[in-house]
């Protein structure tokens, strides 16, 4: 059994939970020689349907800035192979099925929503765990920061 991860995908959304997921993914990439990191953000089109084009363009610009910040941090930490992906769609299906990133590991944050919020909003991390064909690491934020 090979315990080496070559393609590590981290899903980020600007939250403190995804910040912790990025940090964890960065540590994993550095420990796995010759691996690469894909930093992914999916702009949820269900929420975007109510906004006009300018709002969506601003969301894309802000997302690209966030991902470039993460990419620069990864490169500064010694990770040579880093790419960023910004797409529009459903995070639930795009991360595990539609992006074709050939991930060995997907890292994402857990928002810790309550049962009612999960019912109405759904849990992206739960969906990733259920549909991924690779290992998934769901990172929780320390209680002291919530």
TrEMBL record:
Pfam family, any one: Usp
Entry's localization field: Cytoplasm
Domain spans labelled UspA: 6-140
InterPro entries named in the record: Rossmann-like_a/b/a_fold (IPR014729), Universal_stress_UspA (IPR006015), UspA (IPR006016)
Amino-acid biosynthesis keyword on record: no
Keywords of the record: Cytoplasm
Domain of life, per lineage: Bacteria
Leader peptide range in chain numbering: none
Entry's family note: Belongs to the universal stress protein A family.
Protein name: Universal stress protein
Source organism phylogeny: Bacteria, Bacillati, Bacillota, Bacilli, Lactobacillales
């Amino acid at each position: 059994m090979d315990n080496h991860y070559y393609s590590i995908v981290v899903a980020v959304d600007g939250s403190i939970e995804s910040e912790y997921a990025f940090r964890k993914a960065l540590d994993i990439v550095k420990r796995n020689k010759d691996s690469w990191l894909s930093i992914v953000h999916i702009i949820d089109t269900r929420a975007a349907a109510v906004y006009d084009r300018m709002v969506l363009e601003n969301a894309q610009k802000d997302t690209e800035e966030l991902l470039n910040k993460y990419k620069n941090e990864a490169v500064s930490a010694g990770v040579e192979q880093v790419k960023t992906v910004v797409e529009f769609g459903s995070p639930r299906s795009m991360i595990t099925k539609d992006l074709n990133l050939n991930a060995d590991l997907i890292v994402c944050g857990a928002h810790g929503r309550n049962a009612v919020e999960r019912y109405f909003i759904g849990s992206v991390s739960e969906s990733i765990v259920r549909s991924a064909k690779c290992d998934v690491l769901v990172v929780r934020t320390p209680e002291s920061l919530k």
